[in-house]
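Class prep. Sample record?

___
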Amino acid sequence: MEAESASVLVLCGKSNVENEFALSLKSNNVLRFLDSNPVSICLHSEIRNLHCDSEGFQVDHYMDVLSTSQFGRFLMYSPRLGSTHDVVSHNFGELPIGAVCVADVQTKGRGRSKNVWESPKGCLLFSFTIQMEDGRVVPLVQYVVSLAVTEAVKDICQKKGIQHLDVKIKWPNDLYLDGLKVGGILCTSTYKSNKFNVSAGIGLNVSNEKPTTCLNATLQKLTPVAHELQREDIMAAFFNKFEDLYTVFMGQGFQSLEPLYYKTWLHSGQRVIVQDKNDNQDQVVENVVTIQGLTPSGYLLAISEDGQTCELHPDGNSLDFFKGLIRRKLA
């Protein structure tokens, strides 16, 4: 049964406009896949009345909660895919901006630096398309995505009247809860026709306690009443939040979102070790600096013990961004 579901990609939309686009996309057969197994395309209207896996992503419920004007309105869903990120990035030109691909299980999920992202059942796994013209702000969009995830979880807890789950951002693109990683963000981009095509991917542990922990496991510890967050609610709340935050970001810059971002991240006032080469460039010296915030280019702004402001960059070799940091002095 699982082998059959692995080959299905369901297309649907929030309105008739997106549903007509889904029909056109299926009829023209233009979608490309990197999966070794063939992927068959079907419309949600064709399977709506068929028996659906109760553990699978509930498309109708998601669409009912979604209230955006662009993002998340055209949806591609599969019970099993190699990678949602591959689907949106390799078909970017065929999809509307804001199109999303979601899967119950990924077999080839990946994170930053080509790390493998474990993608079991219960994990919310989706990727979507963004298009931008100013290359200077493209690196900052991952912070808007991260912030939208934390705000979405906060919003759902508030609406349900349940204990707030304090999901935090570990710079640049990890999500933590109670000191354990529960999610990650992956944004990649290509430049074509004077525009940056950004594919944004999110993995968030909702009901899967492995490999670390998940939102619902923490929620059960916090409240005596049985509550569970649903992937469909979280994804809809994410797009509702992201669309608003993205509008502010594009109109006013990331600086307007920084106060909210700094309330959500883990690093204000954090002391970290940086590596500097001495004047002879033959020896590495370790120094302690204190993180102050972000620079306009999206790197870490820090101050050394002698009062010198600097910008922190990863060395490109360490899996953890906070190991092997190097600094560039700012005038």
